[in-house]
Write a structure and sequence with these properties.
Structural class: alpha/beta
Number of domains: 2
CATH superfamily of the largest domain: Hexapeptide repeat proteins
Number of strands: 26
Largest sheet: 7 strands, mixed
CATH topology of the largest domain: UDP N-Acetylglucosamine Acyltransferase, domain 1
Number of helices: 15
C-alpha cells in the first residue's frame, strides 16, 4: 500500500518524506502562489486556476487571496461559496463545503494530525481525518476547525472559535473549545438576504455563555444509591451489574455487528461487568475461547455465575485484572471488546497501549459506548458525565488516542439517531 493510499484510508502515513506526496504538495503550493500573485481584478484567470485545482466547485464562488491548501483535489465547495483573505485548508483528508458557506478572514480547516510521541512525529508521520460543512454555514474571522469535525446546516460559528467536536445544525456556537450557545430561530436560519446573525448579537450572547454552561455542583463521584459504577461493590453493585446486562444490550448488539467472527480463535472482554458481553461473543464465535477481565471482584463473580456452564465447558475464563496490566502474553487475542468501561479507565492513553500489546497483529479492538463527546448531548447526560467524572472523548479525540497508542488504522462507527459509538482499532 502506498503512503497516499494509507492517507486516504485514514491510516498513519509518511507525509514528509514520501516522494509522490511531496511532488503533489509542491505542485499545489506553486499553483497557490500563482493564484495569490494575480491582480484582484483578474477574475477570469482566478476562476480558471481554482476550477482546475479544487476537486469540485459550484458555478459561483469567490476565494480571496492569499489562499493556501495542500492538494486541492480533496476540497469540494458548493454554490455561492465565499472565503475571505488568509484561508488555509490542509486537505490531506476530504474537506467538503455545502452551498452558501461564508468564511471570514484568517480561518483554517485542518484535516492533518500528528502522533503525540516525538519519535513517530519526527519521522514525518501523520494522519488525515475528513471535515464536512453543511449548507448555509457562517464562520466568523479566525476560526480553526480540527480534524474529523462535521458541522450541520444553518449554523454560525463565532469568531476566534476552535472547533474540536461535531456541531449540529441550526445553532450558534463559539469558544475554545467551541460549544453551543443556543439554537437559532426559524427566522435566523431562513433563506433571506439579511445576515444569519447580527454581529452585535454575538457579543451579547458570548457574555452570558459561561453562566449558561456552568458546571453542576460537585457531588461524590463513586457511590450512589444504585451502586458504584466505577467499581461495583457489595449487594448494590451486584444488582447494578444485573441491570447493566440488560441496559447495555442494545448498544452492544449493534456494535458487535462490526466484529466479523470468521476465523477468530481468542477473544477478550475488558471490564466484563455482569458477563453478558462474554456470552454474546461466544454466541458469535462458538468455537473461539472467550476471556473476561474486570478489576472488581463483584464483577468477576457475577460474570462467572452468568457464564457458569460455558466456564465448565472450558469455553470461557474470567479473571480479576486491571486494564493497566493484563496477565496475558503479547499478541494473544484476535478480537478485544470493552463496553461502557472506557469512561473509568485510569490512564486511557497508556491503557490503550496495553490493549494493543495483547492484540494479535491484524486483530481488531472494539470500544463500545452509548455516549461520546458530541455536541448537543442532553443536559441530564452532561450532568452525569460531570457527576461521575466520566472520560468522554469526541470522535477526533478517539482517533488521536488510538493512533497514539499505535493502532495502524481506526474506524469510527456512529449509529444514526443515537449517541452510540463503536471505535474500532486495528493493529
Amino acid at each position: 500500500m502506498t503512503e497516499k493510499e494509507k492517507r486516504d484510508h485514514g491510516m498513519i502515513y509518511d507525509a514528509n518524506y514520501d516522494e509522490e506526496l511531496q511532488k503533489e504538495l509542491m505542485r499545489t503550493k506553486d499553483i497557490c502562489f500563482e493564484y495569490n500573485m494575480l491582480r484582484p481584478s483578474d477574475l477570469e484567470k482566478k476562476k480558471e486556476i481554482m476550477d482546475a485545482l479544487l476537486g469540485k466547485t459550484g458555478e459561483n464562488y469567490a476565494i480571496m487571496a492569499p489562499f493556501w491548501c495542500d492538494y486541492g483535489y480533496n476540497i469540494k465547495i458548493g454554490e455561492r461559496f465565499y472565503a475571505n483573505h488568509n484561508c488555509v485548508i490542509l486537505d490531506g483528508g476530504r474537506v467538503t463545503f455545502g452551498d452558501d458557506v461564508f468564511i471570514g478572514p484568517d480561518c483554517g480547516f485542518y484535516t492533518a494530525g500528528h502522533p503525540l510521541d516525538v519519535a513517530r512525529r519526527n519521522a514525518g508521520l501523520e494522519y488525515a481525518s475528513p471535515i464536512t460543512v453543511g449548507n448555509n454555514v457562517w464562520f466568523g474571522g479566525g476560526v480553526r476547525v480540527m480534524p474529523g469535525v462535521t458541522i450541520g446546516d444553518n449554523t454560525v460559528i463565532g469568531g476566534g472559535s476552535v472547533v474540536t467536536h461535531d456541531i449540529p445544525s441550526g445553532v450558534l456556537a463559539a469558544g475554545n473549545p467551541c460549544r453551543i450557545i443556543r439554537e437559532l430561530t426559524e427566522e435566523e436560519t431562513g433563506q433571506s438576504d439579511k445576515p444569519v446573525l447580527d454581529i452585535s448579537d454575538l457579543s451579547e450572547l458570548m457574555a452570558g455563555a459561561d453562566s449558561a454552561l456552568e458546571k453542576v455542583e460537585e457531588k461524590p463521584k463513586d457511590d450512589t444509591i444504585l451502586g458504584n459504577p466505577r467499581k461495583p461493590e457489595g449487594e448494590d453493585g451486584a444488582r447494578m451489574l444485573s441491570r447493566m446486562n440488560k441496559s447495555h444490550a442494545p448498544v452492544t448488539e449493534w456494535a458487535l455487528t462490526f466484529l466479523n467472527p470468521e476465523g477468530v480463535k481468542e477473544m477478550l472482554d475488558i471490564g466484563c461487568g455482569g458477563g453478558a458481553t462474554i456470552r454474546r461473543l461466544h454466541n458469535l464465535a462458538p468455537e473461539a475461547k472467550v476471556t473476561g477481565v474486570d478489576y472488581s471482584p463483584v464483577s468477576v463473580q457475577q460474570s462467572r455465575e452468568f457464564n457458569e456452564e460455558l466456564i465448565r465447558e472450558a469455553k470461557v475464563e474470567v479473571y480479576e485484572a486491571s486494564v493497566e496490566e493484563m496477565p496475558f502474553e503479547d499478541d494473544t487475542f484476535d478480537r478485544i471488546t470493552t463496553v461502557e468501561s472506557f469512561y473509568f479507565w485510569p490512564d486511557p492513553q497508556e491503557n490503550l497501549k496495553e490493549v494493543r500489546r495483547v492484540l494479535k497483529p491484524g486483530g481488531h479492538f472494539f470500544l463500545i459506548a452509548d455516549i461520546y463527546g458530541k455536541a448537543g448531548l442532553d443536559e441530564a447526560v452532561q450532568n452525569n458525565i460531570e457527576l461521575y467524572d466520566l472520560f468522554n472523548p469526541s470522535k477526533e479525540e478517539f482517533l488521536i488516542l488510538l493512533r497514539n497508542a499505535g493502532f495502524a488504522a481506526v474506524k469510527i462507527h456512529v449509529k444514526d439517531g443515537t449517541d452510540w459509538i463503536c471505535v474500532e482499532g486495528i493493529k
